[in-house]
Structure to design on (571 residues):
């Protein structure tokens, strides 16, 4: 079921076009990462989905409802970039307030405080919170009432590695419960294993929208194969395979996806000379650079 | 009801930020001083002591209530926009009108509480000083209700400024100017025009309506009980008679509605 549907959406401020002809849809239970440089249009796109910024062209629907309508707002959970709260309130007061606005029992707010690990600090004023703690309150309020669509803008900025891990556990649970998740982040490595689909924006345009292996395939970036040999055989292996020798007993080879199996067969032919093989596909970081650079060159 | 949810939170914030305490202390302090000082001439005038006290407190309220109203409201929209809490609030299923109304109810409650404490002290002190028990409380009730209306008008003006300015620093500067113009300069300007006109057409036809058009002046006219006392308190009082009580009450009840409507319209245009 399609929860979020974005159809040929554009945004212009005067003569400045910040988002151009974006098509994207997110289904129930799907986790989609939205990547892009600062100023690529990610936040503008999210704000248009929320109805905070009017759309200049195209159409957005959240479960068939127009952005900003009460029906659409009541099914969205949103965590803004650098989330802020009233400093004079305690975490519990703030979260219970949001629960009431979403017609959720205040009790649910207390459970969510537990879930994001803030129950101990719940009755302290938010002005005493660290950035990470404020981010957790932000995440908790986005989870109120089991939203059908979660929009998370830079959700892990300011979180330590352990908290990041816990954060993605919460996202996984949310998606398993049928929530469509659209999240933006700069921390590419953590997204690799934690999302179903990657959408890349560059200069206001969507330049990629696919799962990781399809993106790799389409980009035709070389795969690198790291072959570890016994030290005395490294030169021989390197010469025969045409790879590059590194640090004494490793040989690094590169090949295209289609040649991978053949290449592995040739390596296996060396038998006992080979100690280990690592196949390293293009990382998301490399892919991201590839797609956003391609767009910029095309300008 | 989202309106009451917003109002409830705003009341909590007003208590935390000491706005409730500040408003109550301001009203209580000034009312006590004026009630005690105002009691001095009672003997010679032979007027109901509570009427004297009400008159004194009215002249004070004309300045103080608009000020408290503006101070409570100038941060309401600009502050949230600046702190970054506005975007998140607007994502929840609550309309901007409901947010504004919720804030308004909370701020009006704070103001109403402060005025009630002040007037309560006034009545208590007057009874204690004069020993009288058969005083009419009607003027006090009238003062209370019109104080709320006057406060509501300036709360609305404060929200309007807050929505237009979008920065608290700018908004705070503008509300002080608006306060000065409405409660001080407006009357001075009218007086100047009166003197220049020397009892001509302006004095007879235009002036009374200009006077009553300012909610602070309408408030003053409504609560000045007799011509004698109002002469005592303010030279421009009797001239208001032309517009009549209906004009005064229309002005003070219409202003909150107009100001809140304009504030709502301005708030609708704010992009967080």
């Amino acid at each position: 079921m399609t929860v979020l549907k974005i159809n040929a959406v554009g945004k212009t401020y005067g003569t400045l076009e910040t988002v151009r002809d974006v098509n994207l849809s997110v289904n129930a239970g799907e986790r989609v990462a939205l990547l892009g440089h600062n100023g690529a249009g990610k936040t503008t796109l999210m704000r248009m989905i929320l109805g905070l910024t009017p759309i200049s062209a195209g159409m957005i629907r959240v479960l068939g409802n127009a952005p900003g309508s009460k029906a659409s707002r009541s099914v969205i959970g949103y965590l803004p970039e650098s989330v802020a709260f009233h400093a004079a309130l305690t975490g519990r007061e703030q979260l219970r307030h949001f629960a009431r606005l979403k017609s959720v029992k205040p009790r649910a707010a207390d459970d969510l405080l537990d879930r994001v690990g803030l129950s101990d600090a719940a009755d302290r004023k938010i002005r005493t919170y660290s950035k990470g703690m404020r981010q957790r309150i932000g995440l908790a309020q986005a989870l109120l009432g089991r939203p059908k669509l979660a929009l998370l803008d830079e959700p892990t900025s300011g979180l330590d590695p352990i908290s990041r891990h816990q954060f993605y556990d919460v996202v996984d649970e949310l998606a398993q419960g049928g929530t469509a998740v659209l999240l933006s982040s700069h921390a590419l490595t953590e997204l690799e294993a934690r999302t179903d689909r990657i959408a890349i924006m560059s200069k206001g345009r969507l330049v990629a929208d696919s799962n990781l292996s399809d993106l790799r395939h389409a980009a035709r970036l070389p795969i690198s194969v790291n072959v570890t040999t016994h030290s005395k055989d490294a030169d021989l292996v390197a010469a025969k395979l045409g790879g590059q020798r590194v640090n004494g007993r490793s040989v690094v080879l590169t090949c295209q996806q289609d040649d991978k199996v053949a290449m592995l067969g040739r390596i296996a032919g060396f038998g006992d000379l080979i100690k280990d093989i690592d196949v390293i596909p293009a990382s998301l970081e490399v892919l991201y650079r590839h797609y956003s650079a391609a767009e910029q060159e095309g300008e | 009801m989202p309106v009451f949810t917003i109002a409830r939170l705003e009341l909590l914030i007003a208590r935390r930020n000491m706005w409730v305490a500040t408003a109550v202390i301001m009203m209580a302090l000034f009312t006590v001083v004026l009630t005690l000082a105002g009691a001095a001439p009672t003997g010679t005038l032979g007027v109901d002591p509570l009427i004297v006290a009400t008159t004194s407190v009215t002249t004070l309220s004309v300045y103080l209530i608009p000020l408290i109203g503006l101070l409570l409201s100038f941060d309401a929209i600009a502050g949230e926009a600046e702190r970054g809490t506005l975007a998140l609030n607007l994502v929840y299923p609550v309309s901007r009108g409901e947010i504004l109304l919720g804030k308004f109810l909370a701020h009006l409650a704070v103001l109403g509480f402060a005025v009630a404490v002040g007037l309560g002290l006034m009545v208590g002190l007057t009874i204690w000083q004069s020993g009288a028990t058969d005083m009419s409380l009607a003027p006090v009730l009238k003062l209370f209700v019109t104080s709320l209306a006057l406060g509501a008008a300036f709360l609305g003006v404060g929200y309007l400024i807050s929505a237009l300015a979008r920065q608290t620093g700018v908004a705070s500067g503008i509300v002080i100017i608006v306060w000065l113009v409405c409660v001080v300069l407006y009357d001075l300007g009218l007086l100047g025009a009166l003197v220049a006109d020397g009892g001509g057409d302006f004095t007879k036809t235009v002036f009374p309506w200009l006077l009553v058009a300012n909610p602070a002046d309408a408030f003053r006219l409504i609560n000045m009980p007799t011509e004698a006392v109002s002469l005592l308190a303010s030279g421009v009082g009797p001239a208001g008679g032309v517009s009549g009580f209906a004009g005064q009450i229309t002005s003070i009840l219409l202003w909150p509605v107009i100001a809140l409507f304009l504030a709502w319209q301005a708030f609708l245009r704010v992009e967080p």
Notes: The two ends of chain B are 24 Å apart (CA to CA). Residues 2-268 of chain B form one domain.
